[in-house]
Amino acid sequence: MSTPPRQRGLSLVELMIGMLIGLFLIGGMVQLLGANRQVYRYQEALSRIQEHARFALETLGYEIRMAGYTGCPIRNEIANVINGAGTTWWLDFNTGSVRGYDGSQHFPGRAIGTNTGDRVAGTDAATFIHGGGDSYTVATHNPTAAEFKLNTTHDLDDGSIVLVCDATQTSILQLTNVNSSNVTIVHNTGTATPGNCTKGLGSPVECTANGTPYTFGPDSSMVDFVPTAFYIGVSTSGTGRSLYRIRSQVSAATTSVAVEELIEGVEDMQIFYGIDADGDRVVDPDYVDASAITDWEQVLSVRLELLFVSLEDQLNIEPQWIAFPSADTGRANLIGDGFTAADRRLYQAFGTTLGLRNRLP
């Protein structure tokens, strides 16, 4: 009985076939890993966009809903005794509690430019002013001494701007002498920035030493004065756009405003306004942009449109088209209106409509 010959090696053909099969397997694994990595990058970018959108809508939504809030009747006479209240945008509560700026309109909070923090041309901006923060109750008010006593201790500082109101009068003033260890606060003239033009808190405002006197009685309300503004600006990275917020800050008896970058990756913001032009306390059917509004007291609701973009490129097979109102349409939800990307980053649009609850019936 013969013994079969032992195999002493592989032929060249067998080696080539084995290598070819190995290459196919390796190629499949590489392709699978690459596809999984691309899916992971896409899902991560989508999650980041949705997270940013949620934060932006909550932040903007709160300011929009609170616009015009004082804690007292909205029909009150308003006396703003702060120096520059009629010319400084973030102090102008009467006409600026809600105010928008179309992409081509001058926004006093930040000029259009290409440097970090500058406003991006073609994007909208808006200001929302209201009362908020901690609420205090007035125990006594001595208008001659320009002095309030509160019912509780407080966290107010020298230079804080506050709203004080009762059933008929709302006044905006700056605190000039605050002692955190007691309940007494002073609103005199000449010792803070921008400062009060008068001690008198009544209407109409007269910028004299005593002005128009007014005494707030017990149980009057005092809240912080909260001005905010939002715009789209050049991000700190210099390669994209971000949502910026402007809000007040107090330091050394001086109140000013500061710009802060909230969220990177916000490509555009378009804002449209629902107005009540006929005085029936109902929003008119057509929402308009800021350039079409002449009386901002008619605004009862805001339609907010935000376009977000991933920070990473090469996420889409081709440049993306997405439905989004462009800067030159002049109205919201124009059929066929959209945005076409110039790259392969991921874009997603978010929108919401919010009522100004301090102006609605």
Structure commentary:
The chain has 361 residues and is an alpha+beta fold. It has helices at 12-66, 93-96, and strands at residues 77-80, 98-101, 125-142, 147-150, 161-165, 169-174, 177-178, 184-186, 221-234, 241-251, 254-264, 266-275, 299-309, 321-322, 339-340, 347-355. Strand 7 (177-178) and strand 8 (184-186) form a beta hairpin. The radius of gyration is 30 Å and the shape is elongated. 37% of the residues are buried.
Unreliable stretches = 329-336
- Cα radius of gyration in angstroms: 30 Å
Query: What's the multimeric state?
Result: single chain
Question: Structural class of the secondary structure composition?
Answer: alpha+beta
Shape: elongated
Largest sheet: 11 strands, mixed
Q: What share of the residues lie within helices?
A: 10-25%
Continuous helix count: 2
Mean pLDDT: 90
Order of helices and strands: HEHEEEEEEEEEEEEEEE
Number of strands: 16
Distance between the termini: 108 Å
How large is the share of residues in beta strands?
25-35%
Transmembrane segments: 12-33
Pfam family, one: PilW
InterPro entries: N_methyl_site (IPR012902), PilW (IPR032092)
Keywords: Membrane, Transmembrane, Transmembrane helix
Describe, in short, the structure shown.
Keywords: Membrane, Transmembrane, Transmembrane helix. By secondary structure, the protein is an alpha+beta fold. It has 2 helices and 16 strands.
Task: Tag the structure with descriptive keywords.
single chain, alpha+beta, eleven-stranded mixed beta sheet, 2 helices, 16% helix
Task: Walk me through the topology.
Elements: H1 12-66, E1 77-80, H2 93-96, E2 98-101, E3 125-142, E4 147-150, E5 161-165, E6 169-174, E7 177-178, E8 184-186, E9 221-234, E10 241-251, E11 254-264, E12 266-275, E13 299-309, E14 321-322, E15 339-340, E16 347-355
Parallel strand pairs: 1-6
Antiparallel strand pairs: 2-3, 3-4, 3-9, 4-8, 5-6, 5-9, 7-8, 9-10, 10-11, 12-13, 13-16, 14-15
